[in-house]
Amino acid sequence: MKTMFRAFSALLLLSLIASLGFAGAGNRAGTGGATELLIPTGTRDIAMGGSTVSATSGIEALFWNPAGVAKAKSDVSLMFSHMSYIADIGVDFGAVAANFEGIGVVSLSVKSLSIGDIPVTTTLAPDGTGQMFTPQFFNVGLGYARQLTDRISVGLLGMLVSERMADVSATGFAINVGVMYDNLASLQGLSLGLVVKNIGPQMKFDGPGLNYQATVSTLNRGPTFYRIDAASFELPSTFEFGIGYKRPIASEHYMQITGTFQNNNFSDDEYKLGAEFAFQDVFFVRGGYDFAQKESDQREYIYGMSMGFGMHYVLGTVDLTIDYAYRDLKYFEGNHMFSLKVGL
Asked: What domains lie within the chain, and their CATH numbers?
């Protein structure tokens, strides 16, 4: 009874948080900001179509459901990954997590975007001034996860969001909260997960790049600067609910099937399916598929099929995992992602 009370309390808390952050997508597509928060990390989960809200585990779970970090098998875990994203943008991710007995798992992560140089254009020089600028987008996360019981785990991830474009910048803060319940209804292998992502205050750009030089013809004074007041923008919050089922095969292998529903506050709802086959916990083959509920003929969902594989090897006291994932896109080249996880 005490276990069930904890579970329902966590689910109720998530529902209350979600009600504060969502007003439905409607015509709001394209009006939010800080969309780098939606760029996924975690190669295994990407290969499974992002459907692993109920089945993600270890340090890789930081993006998908921070409650899964509590399932880390090593005392110290490290992860490094790189993804070739849309329009030649590179996404690099690094994280470290430490399991403190009796306290929980504490993690630190950094995600950065490599966009490259962009020519500076102005109203007087629309073809370029000859100068270049390099956008800088990164998120720094501090997380905490804990296994409350043998079935229930909870997690919290706070993120510093930083964006800089030439002489303007914006800084914000976002929170992810998740819960996972294993062996639901006493059925071995059945899991449930819920997570609310990117809940936080509005962000706003500021800086000397918003100063504009003008001359007031009615006053006897030279050119002067005035400040453009940029509009604030909301974070791209999501609420995700997922279920999964893991079944052993011949005692040495297993098959896992997962599904997730994702409600977005600035875009259409998404549905995600995935599967993983593990051969003796050494070699993994994965696949997934994403699709969206189309609410407008003017919007088109660009994601679809995903696939990947992984290899796991224990070398003495070091646990090594190498993963690869591919995600297909319409109109763009597909995303390729590689990652290395180390457990000590």
From this structure: 2-343 (2.40.160.40)
